[in-house]
Write a structure and sequence with these properties.
Blueprint: H1 3-19, H2 26-29, E1 30-36, H3 47-60, E2 65-74, E3 77-87, E4 101-113, E5 116-124, H4 126-132
Parallel strand pairs: 1-5
Antiparallel strand pairs: 2-3, 3-4, 4-5
Length: 140
């Protein structure tokens, strides 16, 4: 695939999964031997674990929408800087619903082969999100 085709794949993946909450779309976009390198504690780092992690996010934050702010691609990798906006409506990692609006930012690197996402690394501002939920005080 070309770099532009890889970027288009990542845009469609983000739209279906992280904007529409279509967890089953993972089967379309991701390889059967996909590895996600940001698995939450207790989650497997395969496609099924990814689907469970996405479902957990949408259960707690049903209005979650992730916007791609920047995209850079080279070879078989696509990097996105993203912003997720949502409302904490249900329990999340033991935190009772707060009904607070939450903004989370992050960067993901996706490796693509044969038209499928093979691997993903993500870094996200979990501490910032927890501060917004009232779990930790903001920095002075």
């Amino acid at each position: 695939m070309t770099v532009e085709e890889n970027k288009a794949l990542v845009r469609r993946w983000n739209d279906e999964i992280w904007c529409k909450g279509n967890v089953d779309a993972a089967d379309e976009f991701m390889s059967t031997n996909y590895v996600f390198n940001w698995a939450a504690p207790g989650m497997t780092s395969d496609r099924d674990g990814y689907k469970k992690a996405v479902a957990m996010q949408f259960a707690a934050f049903p209005d979650l929408r992730v916007t791609i702010d920047d995209m850079i691609a080279e070879g078989d990798k696509v990097v996105i800087r993203w912003t997720g906006n949502s409302t904490h409506k249900n329990e999340f990692m033991g935190i009772a619903p707060t009904n607070k609006k939450v903004k989370m930012t992050g960067i993901s690197i996706v490796r693509i082969a044969g038209g499928k996402i093979m691997e993903e690394w993500s870094e996200m501002d979990m501490m910032g999100m927890m501060q917004q939920l009232g779990m930790f005080p903001p920095p002075p």
